[in-house]
Each structure stands twice: as structure tokens, then as C-alpha cells.
Design a protein that fits this description.
It is built from four helices and eight strands, in the order H-E-H-E-H-E-E-E-H-E-E-E. It is α+β, with helices and mostly antiparallel strands. The strands form three sheets. It has a three-stranded antiparallel beta sheet.
Length: 153
């Protein structure tokens, strides 16, 4: 009889703990990952980085595991000073808009490649890519210009 009672107590305890755990999980809220602005690469590069992946590799030279920042990561990081103008990865790119900054990025041309330095594979002086200035102003840099890269983690 003692063994049966002990078994029932163990089963009851496990059931109670499971209920408490499930209740606490149901109350849990999603907390987004905090983006960390790491800084700028010490080396500069023109818009012909090879690819966005190559830009990540350049960031990792100075900041292990980092990547080129997107414009939303720049906002989410909470940083207020960036030291110098540097390249960032555009999101939600249209023919004439990058990071909410509108204008004649393409120098009269159209197409997404003209606002991302041709997918970060061109240093053509008629192409533009996303930048963020030292004070956090979003803009477009001419792809033939050598700039550091903003890196996030």
C-alpha cells in the first residue's frame, strides 16, 4: 500500500508542477532581441564589397559575429552617435527610396540596384548605397566613395 501511495504522490506532484509550468509559459511575453550597435569598420570600402555577406565578413574583422547594420537595426540599437558616415544595408528598397529617404538616388536611373550599389557589387559613380551619418541621418553615398561599414550584433 505504501508503494501505491508513494506512486500516486509522485504522479500528483508531477501533474501539479506541469500545470504551474504551463500557466507560467502562457503568461510569458515575447521580448525581442536587443540589437547592439558595435561601431564602424576600421577599413573603408567602396560599394563593390562583393555582396552583403562580404560586408558581414568585413564587420567581423573588427567585431566578431557582427554584420552590416540594417536601417531598422540602427534605430533599434538606441545609439545616438556613430562617429562617421558609413554604409548600411537597405531594407524595403524601391526604385527611388531607401530607408525612408527619398530622392534622386539613381542620378536619373531607376532600379533597386541603383540604391544598393548594385547589390553591393558595384563602385559605379552613378550608383548609390545606404549610409548613416555620424549624427544618425540616413542618406545615400556614391558607390565609388570609400566608407567604413556600420556593424551590429
Amino acid at each position: 500500500m505504501g508503494g501505491t501511495l508513494r506512486t500516486r504522490l509522485v504522479v500528483l506532484t508531477i501533474a501539479l508542477l506541469s500545470t504551474v509550468l504551463l500557466a507560467s509559459l502562457a503568461k510569458a511575453t515575447y521580448v525581442p532581441r536587443r540589437v547592439q550597435y558595435m561601431g564602424r569598420t576600421t577599413a573603408t570600402t567602396d560599394g563593390n564589397m562583393g555582396s552583403p555577406g562580404a560586408a558581414n565578413t568585413k564587420c567581423q574583422v573588427n567585431f566578431p559575429n557582427s554584420h552590416i547594420c540594417t536601417q531598422s537595426e540602427m534605430f533599434a540599437s538606441g545609439a545616438t552617435s556613430y562617429g562617421a558616415t558609413a554604409w548600411v544595408l537597405c531594407e524595403n528598397v524601391t526604385d527611388t527610396q531607401c530607408m525612408g529617404v527619398t530622392g534622386n538616388f539613381s542620378g536619373g536611373f531607376s532600379g533597386v540596384g541603383y540604391v544598393t550599389c548594385g547589390g553591393w557589387t558595384s563602385n559605379n559613380g552613378s550608383f548609390y548605397g545606404g549610409t548613416v551619418s555620424s549624427t544618425g541621418v540616413f542618406g545615400a553615398g556614391i558607390c565609388s566613395t570609400a566608407l567604413p561599414i556600420h556593424c551590429c550584433l
